[in-house]
Design a protein that fits this description.
One of its GO terms (biological process) is anaerobic respiration. The longest helix is centred in the first third of the chain and has 18 residues. This protein has a single domain, classed as Orthogonal Bundle (Flavocytochrome C3, Chain A, domain 2). It has five helices and no strands. The chain is an all-alpha fold. The model has no long low-confidence stretch (mean pLDDT 85). The protein binds heme C (HEC) (2 copies).
């Protein structure tokens, strides 16, 4: 009996969440679920060719150039035609780091590790779209500079 009461209480509160949907979901532009929103325009991919700061040391860097029509499949890896060890002399692109040549046991391979083959699993280009949610991220360097007793 008590379980049923709890179940009803949980159901009740989730109904309240659904009712407040329009106010909650910024990703849908605060439009109620059953209404169709005006679609966003297609934003431009940033193509400044300037490498961006990483948020933390092991972050996969975002791609600072367009990747339209760069084929990555069983037969070809367009990214590696510029970023592989042997191509950087000609392309002047930064070489994929040494982790891309390591297998999961930490052994160094002669060529790109299969687990790093599909670059866009981890690396993505950026568009000039305005952010849909606020971001309060603070770089660790800033945090370390704050006196110990202040709130971030
Ligand atoms: C025609 C050569 C070329 C191709 C093809 C290419 N890149 Fe690049 N890439 C560059 C160059 C040059 C840079 C250095 C910054 C710049 O000039 O854009 C770069 C920068 C990057 C960076 C930033 C590195 C950092 O340290 O910030 C990433 C990540 C990257 N590319 C990923 C990719 C991926 C993924 C692909 C395939 C979808 C790709 N690139 C295809 C030439 C290339
Ligand atoms: C499983 C995730 C993953 C995949 C797949 C992957 N990368 Fe990375 N990449 C990373 C991470 C994490 C870093 C930063 C730390 C490091 O160097 O390992 C990085 C770093 C880089 C850098 C900067 C190297 C440097 O020394 O500054 C380039 C360029 C790059 N990747 C290109 C590529 C390309 C091209 C591919 C596809 C062939 C690829 N990556 C596939 C995760 C990945």
């Amino acid at each position: 009996m008590r379980l049923i009461a709890i179940a009803i209480a949980v159901l009740g509160s989730s109904m309240a969440v659904i009712a407040a949907e329009g106010e909650l979901d910024a990703m849908r532009g605060n439009v109620p679920l059953l209404e169709e929103r005006t679609p966003e325009p297609l934003y431009d991919v940033e193509n400044e060719d300037l490498r961006r700061v990483r948020a933390y040391p092991m972050q996969p860097p975002t791609i600072p150039h367009k990747i339209d029509n760069y084929q990555v499949d069983l037969n070809a890896n367009r990214c590696m035609s510029c970023h592989s060890r042997v191509q950087v002399g000609e392309s002047q692109a930064p070489m994929v780091s040494v982790t891309h040549y390591m297998d999961r046991d930490g052994n160094f391979l002669a060529d790109l590790s299969p687990r790093r083959y599909f670059c866009n699993q981890c690396h993505v280009p950026q568009t000039d779209a305005p952010p849909v949610v606020d971001n309060t991220f603070v770089d660790i360097v800033e945090l370390l500079r704050q006196p110990p007793d202040t709130e971030p």
